[in-house]
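Recall that a protein's primary structure is simply its ordered list of amino acids. Everything else, from secondary elements to tertiary packing, is in principle encoded there. The following example makes that idea concrete.
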Amino acid sequence: MLKAHFTGKSILWQGRHKEASNKQQKMIAYGPDPLMLHKGAKALKVSIEKHE
């Protein structure tokens, strides 16, 4: 559970590439957490990787 805190990465979702691309764009468009802006929150970095 703390993997994301230590490595900076976490698997949030697995599925088809087209769906992943759509989800990626939505997450980027949402921007930083509005409740944490006062603490300097930034938008998440989102990447798509092929699962083998």
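The helical segments are 3-7, 17-30. The CA atoms of residues 35 and 41 lie 9 Å apart.
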